[in-house]
Amino acid sequence: MNREEVLLLIHRVYNFNPGPATLPLPVLEKAREELLDYRGTGMSVMEISHRSSDFEEIITSAEASFLELAGLNNRDYRVLFLQGGASLQFMMVPYNFLPDGKTADYIETGIFAEKAQKEASRIGKTHIAASTKDTGYRSIPRQKDLSFSPDPAYVHLTTNNTIYGTQWKYIPDCGDVPLVADMSSDILSREIDLTKFSLFYAGAQKNLGPAGVTAVVIRKSMLERVPENIPNIFSYKVHAESGSLYNTPPCFPIYILQLVMEWLKDQGGLKAIEILNEKKALLIYEAIDRSENFYRGHAQKECRSTMNITFRLPDEKMEKLFLEEAAKEGLMGLKGHRSVGGIRASIYNAMPLEGCETLAQFMEDFCNKHKA
Amino acid sequence: MNREEVLLLIHRVYNFNPGPATLPLPVLEKAREELLDYRGTGMSVMEISHRSSDFEEIITSAEASFLELAGLNNRDYRVLFLQGGASLQFMMVPYNFLPDGKTADYIETGIFAEKAQKEASRIGKTHIAASTKDTGYRSIPRQKDLSFSPDPAYVHLTTNNTIYGTQWKYIPDCGDVPLVADMSSDILSREIDLTKFSLFYAGAQKNLGPAGVTAVVIRKSMLERVPENIPNIFSYKVHAESGSLYNTPPCFPIYILQLVMEWLKDQGGLKAIEILNEKKALLIYEAIDRSENFYRGHAQKECRSTMNITFRLPDEKMEKLFLEEAAKEGLMGLKGHRSVGGIRASIYNAMPLEGCETLAQFMEDFCNKHKA
Prior knowledge:
The structure is a homodimer of 372-residue chains. Chain A has helices at 3-9, 25-34, 53-70, 85-97, 111-120, 236-241, 251-266, 269-290, 316-328, 353-370, and strands at 14-15, 77-82, 103-108, 125-131, 155-158, 160-161, 166-167, 179-182, 199-203, 214-219, 296-297, 308-312, 331-332, 343-346. With 372 residues, chain A is α/β, with parallel strands linked by helices. Chain A has two domains: 30-266, 3-Layer(aba) Sandwich (Aspartate Aminotransferase, domain 2), CATH 3.40.640.10; 268-370, Aspartate Aminotransferase, domain 1 (Alpha-Beta Complex). A seven-stranded mixed β-sheet of chain A has the order 2-10-9-8-5-3-4, sandwiched between helices. In chain A, strands 11-12-14 form a three-stranded antiparallel β-sheet. In chain A, strand 6 (160-161) and strand 7 (166-167) form a beta hairpin.
């Protein structure tokens, strides 16, 4: 069978899950093709040694492609591929960079930003430089709302808030203080000046690959600040010096991530994907705005995320019906997070334009049918 | 094509890698079959939500099958599926169970046992209850060689030492003190009384599945000892209460692990696999012993592992030739660890008997050809 014939036999839906999320179909097809024999080795990529030249090539290529896409150079930056998700980074960041007597500043824009601050507060002193909690995390603080502590060890922010559908549209100015970001839900989705960050990280399961690997991008000069006496497994320096092979890495997730990087380069890189992501998001935001309050967006307009689109319907019964009818059309994973309710469409890089067109059309039809 | 026809087209070797290691072929075939559409969901298992009923079924079934195979009941034990490998457990064990003022006892039987003790010593006080380092880690201490501290918080051991090819053949008696074990390289490979352990853990990439997931089996009563003030991400209690879903788990590795558990049950469980593993190991040890010192085993005979078989040849040149000629026969991954040198055959559960027969025959032929 040729590719078209195989695909005709495969049942696929539009998957709006917030993470784990949809992956590019060509990536899955490639993984499928190589699953029992990785490029003539006679082994699955799950069975090859993490110290073999085959795996070395995968992880080296993943790092190089990541930096290329991010517009960063390998003289100044390293990409580490670690385990434990963003949640382990919540601990590793202060373990490495929050010494006794110093304070780390956190900007609260959602539950995960809160979690990052709370875990850090078990390691050292933290300060909340701004919070939009009072208004249901519908917005992102403006530069003038940020109130930093006198001499922070670093400033931590969350660039995109999956649950609320908000996204930073500017990079805050915090002078010479290292800027650290959790970019789990919008990493490599748009062209921004990543050199402004000293460290950023992302669980892979939204924009980079499957769950089980976390990308940590660190400016090399930061490695000099890592204390020698912290446990090896938490030390960015140890992981950097061993090329992410201090212990056995999550090989298969890294392999898929590498294929996703290749796919993203084939799409034309970050500028091209940003244009597409904006087009995709606009289709759905227009369906919200045209509905004259049948759909009510959660995020303030100027903070709307291009990755996660959150909205409510007139009542919960109608939301339930929306989810049921959407599922019949093959539009899956649209249930909002319990803390916001309603609907959430997660449209990461791998969601095709057709998925958003189909959803926007469905939203318009549903509105016309059910609007009182 | 039917299964036999497909397999004829697939190049597969005998893979003696120490981990990541060979996986059961039926597991890989199942994963391949479901890779683009997991059981009618229209999504890959990498794309489904970790909070979906589909994934719930995978992780619940993985835990139940694991306990069933291990001969443990779910009233007293939990299995957690975490990230970070055994190396993160080296930290989590003392974080949870080594309070200030107490000492934890470690038994040194190899580099990984050393690492476990060293990482713990950054958290609290440790004591080395026995060590076989002086004799090149060729043996396992006897019960009478163990010298425990007065009132240890726990005793930690490594049941199988991958690098040296040694394995504990008894479970040490340490009275009421909780016994904790790193079982990364022999977990679920033999029938032993696992109720003697309060906690045991294993990186999956040897006997359980692919790299990227770590199984931690914990007696429920131990959870009451976990301090409330440790970071959530390190707390066994937090992970147990959330059913390993405190943060996004490594879904795909857990899925493969679950398939491996099903496969292991199909093989007849631990008693059956133990008999097979002993038969497999014996074939290779006999080839060593029959060679009249052409092959020299590293481990003392009474401590020989059924999982990793380590041996040297007369010189390094001969070892190089051995590896080259073995590779020509499709016998891969046989290079020993740099600290022992020579040859290492890792023959975990998923290595078929035919692989060991082929290797033993190759060893005999090679010996006959090259013995002076």
